Amino acid sequence: MKLAAREELCSGCRACELVCSMKNFSQPNPKRSAVRVAGAFPAPGRFSIVYCDQCGVCAEVCPVEAIRKVDGHYEIDADLCTGCMVCVDECPHGAMFSHPDDDVPFKCVACGECVAYCPRQALVDEDGEVAWAGVEAKKRAV
Amino acid sequence: MAETKLFGYGGRIVRVDLSRGEVSIEPTPEDLAREYIGGRGFVARILWDELEPGVDPLSPGNKVVMAPGPLSGLFLPGSGKIEMGAKSPQTGLYGEGNMGGHLAGELKFAGYDALIIEGAASEPCFIVIDDEKIEIRDAGKYWGKGAFEAEKMLKDDLGGEFQIATIGPAGENMVTYAVVSHDFGRQCGRTGVGAVLGSKKVKAVAVRGSRGFPVADPERVLAKGKEMYEACFAKPGFEEWTPYGTAGVTDWINEIGAFPTKNFHTGYFEKHKQINGPTLRDRILILDKGCMGCPIPCGKYSKVDYKGRTIYVEGPEYETIALMGGNLLIGNIEEVAYVNYVADELGIDTISGGSVVAFILECLEKGVLTPQDVGRDVKWGDADGVAWLLERIARREGVGELVARGVKEAAERIGKGSERFAMHIKGLEISGYESRFAPAMMLAYMTADIGAHHNRAWAITYDAAVGQDVIEGKAAKVIELQHVRPLFDALGLCRLQWVEIGFELEHYADIFPIVTGWDYSWEDLLRISERIWNLTRCFNRRERPDFGRAWDLPPPRWLEEPLPSGAGKGRCMSRENAEKMLDEYYELRGWDANGLPTRAKLEELGLGFVLEKLELD
Fold it and tell me: Is there a domain that residue B235 lies in?
């Protein structure tokens, strides 16, 4: 799964942030989401989406090799991570996150939930592995 | 500090005492949560318990309560609503409004189920809540700025993650229909909560939360949330309704003769297609903007080049199209958007503000006020003149001072028969539905606790379904809606998924128990909604000893003047039928003939404590 955004479709509802934190941290908490929406208002009046495209810069800069490629996406090994946060500083997309209560950062694990449940289909999977949940839902409703 | 372990709740209430400059954090009482749910329920019970009866709404003794609900901030459709209430400075009764955006969730994520603002500051201030770090800061540089201008400044100063509510100049100057604004286009619009904040010298509230909040069964809550989104995605309205949002209803409301036109002179506006949803989308929309968790964003963010100025405004949504379009005879979407923008920056409710301006225009037309009285002449349909009047109102200058407390008081001051066309119930201006040919809608307006607002029961679809000339049976439907719709305001949810695209209510009944861990049925929740409804009715009686049946009557225009055009041509509500609907309504509610809850009813609903502060039969 490789995330891509069609930001012009984003309504800023942040369903992506909510489903991400529920799926990966079992709680509603956008500060524990690996995808983030930011608005630019009143002008020009649009949203941008911060997301991980699995570019691998985090793995390159990690001084203890705690970030590795697993099934096409990069994962942090929390046992190896020293919490130096170099990856957070160096991520070119701003898509490595830390939470004040945690010692180690977190990132997108390519679960695809944000793609499936974005009401606007503003987040898509470039690899075509994850579909929007509305496709199946519409078929079932017919 | 002991914290109550509640699921679906932040578990804490934050209290800011501006007079003492003190902040305290209290656990959310479990019995309050179990008996009043949250949101509107918390607002109603806290105001009942904590306000001194008869308190001056613009004095330090009044309190503003802001409360999300247990379902706010969750991964489910429409989880972005926050309720805000105070004793209303406009009506002197129970005051409450709600808004979407992202403030509700953020307060929950910071761990709070309510923010209580009490006392008053001596200098302009704003409140910053950053998890446990809570401060009252100097707002000197923001005071006097427009509502969204100030929000932008605060976002730049504090950081984009903060969710910010502000007031505009109208709130600062305590215009009693001043709103609380948020998210560059959302307003807690009705009953003047913005004026109460202004009286306390609070320019803004900024919130950032990182804690999140617990739910009883996270796995099932995630699965149910997914099911709820999928159900929305599969509805035809998901694609058909969303492009126009609330503006999409404009044509139909005209067809059934219910579009407020020329200060509710009639119910049909010839130029309605020039200000409807498709025209908005075609001509000015740049973005569909949604509140937290919303799959069907009704926010129609627009850009308008108006006489050499580029303005951005969220809207116009239907109510603004009605009250600042048809009701002012402005038949051009760019002009409606412009006056919408002016009202938003000033922090004026477009519903009450539109009605107040229409009242002035009718006074001018009838010679009740002269151009000298007003400061200049303004004709129907004159957008620049309307903007000029809105400025006067927000600054309370000249005629603005005369109308700064709404049409009821303005008519009392002006006299000369102007009360015949002051369009309000209980002192609150009527929202966007002309109801002389919509009796259920009229009864909904007559009996709404805050005054003539539609959100308690949008009964007009029922009128259309069973007959716009039918009186019988309307009361039962209005009561049913008055329990269902305000329940959303207690749960912290938006109702539009249900109202507009047919999303089933059963979904909410399913998710409440797995979020809270409480085995409540939908009927249990409706019972709580009825409890809250009776409590706010008692609040009104406590604050106004003469409160009762007479307060529930519609304005003279609806009782005396038949509609001159449209589908309802010739129709009017007779006094006899209005009284008949009230009789039926009171009886079904278990209230006495004066419209007051009986002791037996209160005890049945667990409201026996009310009798300690209120004499009832």
Answer: no
